[in-house]
Amino acid sequence: MKLRNTSILKKTGAAKPRQSIKTTCHTSGFTLIEILVVIGLFTLIVGIGMTFSLDSYRNYLFRSEYMSALNIMSQARNRAINNFNESPHTFAILADEYRLYASDIYDSGDSSTYESFPRNNSLTISPNTGTYEFSQLSGDNPTCDPDCVITFGNGLLTKTITVNVGGGIITN
Predict the structure, then answer these.
(1) What is 47-171's CATH number?
(2) Whole-angstrom distance, CA of residue 61 vs CA of residue 77
(3) Average pLDDT over residues 6-31
């Protein structure tokens, strides 16, 4: 066994003993595998989120269109019952809009006799067009005998509005 006396070396100024040289390479960053895993997880999360958000948006459009038609129809019935303008009121479904007529005369050229509401054409409505007249003071609907059924659909959901002879508006 060979011993070196380093204190003697220090005093004499002789060369210092050799220390082992370790090469250390400090790298910073991520490996390609780590980056690909993170991108894959991000893509998976975004894909699942988009599926849910698109379905939610379609359902929102469906519900809002259904509720719009129901509210306009209810408004026509309420105005007829309250004898607004002393005339019957009519809810009409047209190809690109809903109309609320303030009389039993459906004059498309005279915009003072109706209010126009836009319609979402991405939904299916059956029948696609039609008029539903509510008699003044009673709110009866003589054109719906026995019942008129309006069906709303978007491919996933289906809802109906039923109008009976008595002017009752029934939803499901």
Answers:
(1) 3.55.40.10
(2) 24
(3) 62
Closest alpha carbon to 166 in 146, 140, 144: 140
Pair of tokens at residue 26:
């400090």
CB-based burial of residue 148 (10 Å sphere; 0-12 exposed, 13-18 middle, 19+ buried)? middle
The more confidently predicted of residues 86 and 28 is 86
**Residue 166 in tokens:** 């008595």
Identify the pLDDT of residue 25. Answer: 62
The tokens of 14 are what? 């002789």
| Beta carbons of 152 and 125 less than 8 angstroms apart | yes
* pLDDT over threshold 70, residue 18: no
Closest to 124 (Cα-Cα) out of 93, 170, 82, 100: 93
CA distance 63 to 54: 14
What are the extents of the domains in the chain? 47-171
pTM score of the predicted model: 0.69
